[in-house]
Specification:
376 residues; mainly alpha; 6 strands
Length: 376
């Protein structure tokens, strides 16, 4: 079969109208769905996602959409084209209104970006954004959730975002129900991100000696216990002196708009050694290869490269936050003491982070007590 691009060129050259049915195709990833009225709808289906293709099958419009879908550009093109074509009463219209609400605007910039992306993907998939939001039921959302079972956290974030949209509808649009409330979250990995072991930390340090940005990133994460969104913003402006010691004073980025968490953490001597031996920026300690501060996602990608270079594909930057909490637990720190470093508001996450460490400490104490009670 001729390439899709060549077919489009030939059809345009021949002057054949796009609305004319040209042929029955046998293109990969094309599926045909028949609605209740007997109309055939064409979709490009791949990686569990369906994108609508213009018809009729074999037309110039159909082949153009298919070609864009192959190179991953159709979804963004459809989203852009529909910006000014919002169906009244549709879920997309409700989302646009929600984006203007105080609830949405109270989120931090990164939170707004993430939630907007989730809802835009929801609208594009199967053209759900053009359907009346009043028709959306819990069973429909469960099907969407179940299609993402291989990504439970992403599925749960989708349900959470839709819940907030309908929460807005109930407050401002006199809508009487929230179909997402009845949809259960999927059970994710109960252990969360992999927590680095002492051996893995040593292996990373061997691969990235003191003086490298990779080693500085490791030390900042391990000795402050902060998220990557905070690590990339830490700079000299956050340094202060208290009782003769250097401290870091900053506000965490998560929930900074509505529930800010203000942090003051002493700089550990081990971290100070690494900082003194490593070239750093001023407003941001961590600088990328272009001499500019990392973005949160850029830092995550670069840290992934550093881990791979050290032979640690199972490790991640977030796992260091968990390792920091576990290390503090092994040293006998209380949950409140650990929370004063990580910035968690409740002990729920701390308990999950430190479960294995607490078990290890209790087991060691139990054996010590048993051995002490045996006598000579």
């Amino acid at each position: 079969m001729r390439s899709v691009a060549l077919q489009v060129f030939m059809l345009r050259t021949l002057g054949i109208e796009g609305s004319k049915l040209l042929m029955k195709t046998n293109l990969k990833y094309v599926v045909r769905d028949t609605d209740r009225r007997g109309n055939v709808r064409l979709h490009y289906r791949r990686h569990g996602r369906k994108l609508r293709l213009r018809g009729p099958e074999g037309s110039i419009e159909f082949l153009e959409d298919y070609q864009m879908a192959l190179v991953g550009r159709l979804a963004s093109a459809q989203a852009k084209s529909k910006t000014n074509e919002i169906v009244k009463g549709s879920f997309r219209e409700l989302c646009v209104a929600y984006f203007q609400s105080a609830d949405f605007r109270s989120l931090a910039p990164r939170g707004q970006k993430v939630r907007r992306g989730i809802l835009e993907r929801f609208c594009i998939n199967n053209n759900d954004g053009e359907k009346p939001y009043s028709d959306l039921q819990s069973k429909h959302l469960r099907l969407r959730r179940d299609a993402m079972m291989d990504r439970p956290e992403a599925a749960n974030n989708m349900i959470k975002a839709v819940r907030q949209v309908f929460k807005y509808a109930m407050r401002y649009q006199d809508f009487d129900r929230n179909p997402a409330v009845a949809v259960e979250y999927l059970a994710g990995n109960p252990d969360g991100f992999h927590a680095w072991t002492p051996e893995e930390i040593a292996k990373f340090e061997d691969a990235h000696p003191i003086g490298t940005t990779a080693r500085l990133a490791l030390a900042l994460a391990l000795y402050t216990g902060q998220r990557r969104s905070d690590l990339v913003l830490l700079g000299r402006q956050h340094m202060t002196v208290h009782n003769g010691s250097d401290w870091l004073r900053f506000t965490q980025q998560k929930n900074i708009r509505n529930k800010p968490v203000h942090m003051e953490i002493p700089i550990a001597p081990e971290l100070r050694v690494v900082m003194d031996a490593t070239p750093m920026g001023d407003m941001s300690f961590l600088m990328n290869g272009y001499g500019r501060p990392f973005t949160s996602n850029g830092f995550g990608n670069k840290f992934r490269d550093w881990c791979d270079a050290a032979g640690l594909p199972q490790c991640s930057a977030h796992g260091l936050r968990k390792a920091a909490a576990a290390r503090l637990a092994e040293l006998g720190c209380t949950e409140q003491e650990i929370m004063s470093i990580t910035g968690h508001r409740t002990s729920k996450e701390i308990a999950r982070y430190t479960k294995s460490a607490n078990q290890k400490v209790r087991a060691e104490r139990a054996i010590d007590k048993m051995s002490a009670g045996k006598g000579p």
